[in-house]
Amino acid sequence: MKDYLKLFNIFFRVGAFTFGGGYAMIPIIQKEIVENNQLIDESEFLDIIAVAQSLPGPIAVNTAVFVGYKLKGFLGAVATLLGTILPSLVVIIILAIFYDRIKDVHSIQLFFQGVRPAIVALIFMSAIKLSKSISKNRFNILLMSFAFIGIVFLKIHPIFIVILCAIAGLLHRKKEGEYGTH
Amino acid sequence: MELIRLFWAFLKIGAFSFGGGYAMLPLIEEEVVNNYQWLTSTEFVDIIAISQMSPGPIAVNAATFVGFRHYGVLGSIIATFGVVFASFFLVMTFARIIIKYKKSFFVEGIFAGIRPSVIGLIAAACVSLFQTSIVDIKSLLISILVLIILYKSKLHPIGIIMLSGVFGIILYSI
């Protein structure tokens, strides 16, 4: 029970402080799950993000369910799912009731004007930290650059990037196996 | 009956929108505004504004908002469960397979390719967020300030978020 509560607790914080959607939850999950509690390591975390990004649905929800299931099975996934969605459920209901009064409160808008650029910096640091978990060989650097250029400049959908890189990984492994090189 | 329609509509949104975040907006709009007409276009824009000031995935926020507007607290809970329903079972199924065959040639090969690409994906997300969030000198200043704090201290991301909000209030009030 204690473990489930702990998972719920961690993902409640993730749900409560994920502003800006999607990737904004990466720094918080990374801090809580990888660094503070060391429940999973960085390369596993990358795998989980890849799966969360490739399946339909919100990335934060997908990541939460994967982490919960991996650590504590079905009930673990229930705990992390509830933790992730409960804060937005409560906040949205409150905002929906008071929206007409809240939307013009100037200081709330200024607060979020400050938060948005901070999210960029947080995600940037996450990318740097996570990149330390993979070795900088030619293959990895090539795929990293391909993914980046593919999305930013060629506007390829992330799913196709993930699929192409999965195929490249398989072919690379196969070649390595045949020649026995690393 | 109405609640079942609500659940079903958000189940579809959860099951067919890839990429998370704002990538889910077109499908949400299609279902909620055009198809079921639960919201007007203006209300839909309001949801985006509300989502920007509340935490959590935007799809969950939209589900809660629509459910609450039309069917109260029960509606918000049902719509929210609808939107995460497909994710929950799909992710668990994939997690189970991946964990089971983790050491196999196939899964290892796939992730050897995917892992570096995720770094690229996150960096790319950073660029697109940069374009929408860094709009003036003040926002640039905040992001640089946060980078310095992150580099020099071990402050929790939640602390950073609260602090940057305060920066926002101070800087944009001057």
From TrEMBL, chain A:
Entries under InterPro entries matching the protein: CHR_Transporter, Chromate_transpt
Electron transport among keywords: no
Membrane topology: Multi-pass membrane protein
Primary subcellular site in the record, as a coarse category: membrane
GO MF: chromate transmembrane transporter activity
TM regions (residue ranges): 7-28, 74-98, 110-130, 142-171
Keyword check for Cell inner membrane: no
Superkingdom to which the source organism belongs: Bacteria
Compartments where found: Cell membrane
Gene Ontology terms: cellular component: plasma membrane
Keywords: Cell membrane, Membrane, Transmembrane, Transmembrane helix
Pfam families (UniProt xref): Chromate_transp
Entry similarity comment: Belongs to the chromate ion transporter (CHR) (TC 2.A.51) family.
Listed name of the protein: Chromate transporter
Phylogenetic lineage: Bacteria, Bacillati, Bacillota, Clostridia, Peptostreptococcales
TrEMBL record, chain B:
Localization (cell): Cell membrane
Transmembrane segments annotated in the record for this chain: 7-28, 73-99, 119-149, 155-173
Annotated GO MF terms: chromate transmembrane transporter activity
Superkingdom, natural source: Bacteria
GO CC annotations, alphabetized: plasma membrane
Record key words, sorted: Cell membrane, Membrane, Transmembrane, Transmembrane helix
Membrane topology note: Multi-pass membrane protein
A Pfam family per the record: Chromate_transp
Major subcellular location class: membrane
Entry similarity comment: Belongs to the chromate ion transporter (CHR) (TC 2.A.51) family.
Name by which UniProt lists this protein: Chromate transporter
Provenance organism: Anaerovirgula multivorans
Lineage summary: Bacteria, Bacillati, Bacillota, Clostridia, Peptostreptococcales
